[in-house]
Amino acid sequence: MFFDICVIARKEWKEYLTGQGLKGGALNIVVLVVVFGIFLPAQFGPTFMKSPINLLFWAWVPAFLVIAAVADSFAGEKERRTLETLLASRLSDRAILIGKLAGIISYGWGLTVVCLLLGLISTNVIYARGRLLLPPLDMSLAILTLSFLVAHLTAEIGAVLSVKATSMRQVYQTMSLTWMALIFGVSYGAKAILGFLDKETAAAIVNWFVTMGAAENRLSLVGGVSLVLAGAGLLLFQLAENRLKWIRCVPAS
Amino acid sequence: MPEAVIVTEKLSRNFGGVRAVQNLSLEIPPGSIFGLLGPNGSGKTTTVRLLLGLLQPSSGCARVLGFDTRTDADRVRQASGVLLEHDGLYERLTAEDNLDFYGRLWRLSDRERRKRTQELLTDIGLWERRREKIATWSKGMKQKLAVARALFHRPRVVFLDEPTAGLDPIAAVALRDELGELARKEGVTIFLNTHYLAEAEKLCSLVGIIQSGRLLAVGTMEQVRCGAGGPRFRITGTGLTEDTIAGLRNGGLAAEIHGVDNEILISLQTGEIEDVVAYLVRAGAKIREVRKQEASLEEAFLSLVEGDESCSSISA
Ligand SMILES: Nc1ncnc2c1ncn2[C@@H]1O[C@H](COP(=O)(O)OP(=O)(O)OP(=O)(O)O)[C@@H](O)[C@H]1O
Ligand SMILES: [Mg+2]
Asked: Which of B18, B50, B54 to probe by mutation at the A interface, max A CB count within 10 Å?
């Protein structure tokens, strides 16, 4: 099974590197890495490394990458009529699903990690002036864990949506809009809630978030969020696998 | 007789009210090339998908290499090579990468994959173009590559759903030749869907004719040709009068008789040609020649399909 997963993931990567349009293409990947890994960190400067906004930003990057990849990988393969031949091969449903998810997550999260490392290097090159600038260790761990889980969850949601979808664009648009709605919903929702509270409480809450970089309970917060995301990921995996089984062998009506 | 590679027993599949395949019973011996012939929408693709376990039957069952397609579809797919309705090739990858991917899926070693890629691509005349992305290839080239992919891991059974569909006549002939050659060389059992009679005639050792999901005839080319209305003979001589012909008709020896100018054209139903000749001689005719007429597969096909249509319209 492990071997099968690697074969599928390898094929997915080959397609990313030679792709055009929504997903991949070596040139697109380079542009992406330059923007997220060099340009943006250089713009924000070293404070960005410590701010909790950083956490949200690096949770968004893998989602952005994964949405395109997952739409292409499942719905795109259906649209291009290659999925049925793959389903007629000796691979198990699970190997196909995990192989594809592994390809997508390694692409989305892998590029995020590359961007993070490049960001670290470029921030140091531009702003260090003799001393090494490093984000706090727990912040780094939190970013790595959350970005992985976001990549994973987005990939699972994409798989569930794609397996039955008829077009790649449909999946891409649905997922992009959902993500945007989520981000705007959370930020406007938070703003609205804060607006209801009296000034002091609101300020205390904002302060708690901003100084979260120093808060002791930060790791437990990240841990809690991670657990929820991982649990949701497992449920979605089961759902995606059932759907794939269904399209692989369409039951008698 | 060696054990059949593909066996179906009253295999049926409905899609809502559409009966795509009805009570299909078949036995295909190893090493044969079986052609399932039928017009559009007759249930050929559905049959292949049922045989690969990509669809559950509504009733009946099928076994491929002894594995039940309902419970052991994984093992059926393990032993099969397929070219479905669409070629299933990855357009962004090169020809070589397409074959390599499927070779890896079937766990062929690096050496074996390289050897097989060279062997098959050379056979189909595309070795020089192996490093091109196939998005730029013509339909015929892609079809050939897809056939090569189906055979790549030396499967024991190969399912090909209209391998020459959409090809120009020259490309179709070339692909047919290559397919026949590859099949002989590799000794596989091939299940081939087609609506080209010439294809079946050229390639297949066994054919089945399907219409509206029902198998109308099955057997060797010869059996199917003759099965459509029984064998036909042309008898010439003298004394083949109206009365003699009427007597022959009433005797129930022949299904169909046409007589003109001391010549009769006769389709046998149950009787033997010897009985017919004996009757004619007894009736005073002098027979000069009896010649068996070969019906073409096309005639057999049309007679079966049209016969079936008139039956269905009568029963409807
Ligand atoms: N997934 C499906 N859902 C509903 N109906 C279907 C489905 N697949 C096939 N059918 C119906 O089953 C019948 C047989 O279709 P099938 O594709 O097997 O025909 P075919 O012989 O392969 O035709 P063609 O020569 O055009 O490829 C058709 O009436 C078709 O509409
Ligand atoms: Mg078809």
From this structure: B54
User: What's the rounded mean pLDDT across residues B149-160?
Assistant: 93
Q: How far apart are CA A245 and CA A175, in angstroms?
A: 23
Report domain extents, chain B: 6-226, 230-293
Residues 6+ apart with CB under 8 A from B147: B83, B124, B160, B163, B175, B178, B179, B182
Q: Residue B273 pLDDT > 80, yes or no?
A: yes
As given in the structure block, the two tokens for residue B72 are 């052991």
ipTM score for this prediction: 0.84
pLDDT in tens, A204-222: 877 776 665 555 666 777 7
The residue count of chain A comes to 253
Q: Point out the residue among A85, A92, A253 whose CB comes nearest to the CB of B15.
A: A253
Does the domain spanning B230-293 belong to CATH 1.20.1600.10? no
Are the beta carbons of A15 and B102 separated by less than 8 Å?
Answer: no
Q: What are the pLDDT digits (tens) for A72-99?
A: 888 989 999 999 999 999 999 999 999 9
Nearest CA to ligand 1 atom 18: B43
How many structural domains does chain A have? Answer: 1
Q: How many helices (H) and strands (E) does chain B have?
A: 11, 14
Distance CA A228, CA B59 (A): 44
Residue to mutate, B11, B12, B15, B40, ligand 1, most ligand atoms under 8 Å from C-beta: B15
- Put simply, the answer to whether A90 touches B133 (Cβ < 8 Å) is no
The domain in which residue A85 lies consists of 2-249
CATH class for the region spanning B6-226: alpha beta
Nearest CA-CA partner of B281 in B233, B234, B249, B240: B240
Alpha carbon distance B252, B264 (integer Å): 16
Coil, strand, or helix at residue B250?
helix
pTM of the full structure: 0.81
Rounded-to-10 torsion of CA B304, B305, B306, B310:
100
In terms of Cβ atoms closer than 10 Å to its own Cβ (0-12, 13-18, 19+), residue A80 is middle
pLDDT at A202 over 90: no
Strand order in the sheet with B263-268: B254-260, B263-268, B232-238, B286-293
